[in-house]
Task: inverse folding
């Protein structure tokens, strides 16, 4: 029999349905799920001790949530606001920070800092900082961008991305470009090694020993790179690199080359060479769209992992270092996987342009 000192729990159909839904929570809101199971068990006529033993909790806990439900029904099972420091910033102050940040600039500066805006609005620097973080505002940051004005932009994006996502059979797809004017630099003083608490230190000045230009072709499928180093980057050097590619790619495969619109890629000499080698098919990226050429991603790794902090006393030493890095890469190549479709790219550009226009920037 039910304990006569306990208030009888009678659930409506809607309450039982909601409690059963809360009780089935597999991961989230486990506290709410337990409270729901307490009430459901109590509604079956079980006493507090029996419910506690069934659910593995204390009798006092069962009694607490039984009473809360009797008093406030479903709302009684939800967490009450926790005590804490009262809010010190009004909605008007938050709005003022956001409006000033987005729509004005301080006198004598190009952007607000947390301290300058705090002084302007009579707030603390930490308050402005919290508001900026909450609304993802970062006035100190600026990124660069450039929208291609190529009249064939859409067609070229669809061509190149289609090649990435669905490469043709019995063909190799190569992303080709040149990294020109790589400087052989040597520091004017020895580099101090890293120590606990102290990073490696290099002198800010350096000595130039000449430049080199790297032509690279990244295989879309395998990630391997064909590279060639030259003192200059003219059409004649590009023609030599095409011949290098021709010699290294099996003769029974077509060669699809993704490359930019540099003038050295379109000279009469290059056109004659391509006419004599019909298995080569060129796919030009839109102007100002180097992000569409995957070899640029590989150039970025070369720069950060080898060139930026490297020291070379001669061009010969620089070239040797680059060749060794390419060999190391090809021993364990890591192909880049393109995932975005042409439609997704074009829709993202459209959304961004619309957003900028709507904001009146």
Result:
């Amino acid at each position: 029999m039910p304990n006569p000192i306990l208030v009888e729990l009678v659930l409506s159909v809607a309450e039982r349905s909601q409690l059963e839904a809360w009780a089935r929570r597999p991961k989230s809101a486990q506290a709410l799920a337990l409270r729901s199971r307490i009430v459901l068990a109590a509604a079956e006529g079980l006493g507090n001790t029996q419910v506690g033993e069934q659910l593995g909790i204390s009798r006092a806990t069962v009694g607490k949530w039984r009473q809360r439900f009797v008093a406030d029904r479903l709302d009684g099972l939800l967490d009450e606001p926790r005590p804490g420091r009262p809010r010190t910033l009004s909605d008007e102050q938050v709005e003022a920070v956001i409006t000033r940040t987005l729509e004005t600039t301080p006198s004598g500066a190009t952007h607000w800092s947390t301290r300058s805006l705090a002084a302007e609005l009579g707030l603390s620097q930490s308050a402005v900082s919290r508001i900026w973080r909450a609304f993802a505002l970062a006035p100190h940051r600026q990124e660069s961008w450039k929208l291609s004005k190529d009249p064939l932009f859409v067609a070229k994006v669809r061509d190149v991305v289609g090649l990435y996502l669905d490469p043709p059979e019995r063909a190799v797809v190569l992303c080709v470009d040149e990294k020109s004017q790589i400087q052989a630099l040597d520091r004017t003083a020895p580099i101090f090694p890293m120590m606990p608490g102290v990073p490696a230190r290099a002198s800010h000045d350096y000595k130039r020993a000449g430049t080199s230009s790297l032509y690279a072709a990244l295989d879309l499928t395998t990630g391997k790179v064909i590279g060639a180093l030259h003192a200059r980057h003219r059409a004649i050097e590009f023609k030599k690199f095409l011949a290098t590619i021709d010699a290294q790619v099996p003769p029974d495969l077509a060669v699809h080359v993704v490359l930019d619109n540099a003038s050295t890629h379109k000279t009469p000499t290059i056109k004659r060479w391509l006419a004599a080698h019909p298995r080569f098919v060129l796919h030009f990226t839109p102007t100002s769209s180097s992000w569409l050429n995957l070899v640029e991603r590989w150039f970025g790794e070369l720069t950060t992992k080898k060139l930026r902090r490297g020291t070379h006393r001669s061009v010969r030493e620089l070239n040797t270092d680059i060749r060794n890095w390419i060999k190391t890469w090809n021993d364990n190549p890591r192909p880049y996987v393109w995932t975005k479709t042409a439609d997704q790219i074009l829709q993202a550009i459209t959304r961004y342009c619309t957003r900028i226009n709507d904001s009146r920037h």
In short: Residues 215 and 228 are 5 Å apart (CA to CA). The mean pLDDT is 87. The first strand starts at residue 171 and ends at 187.
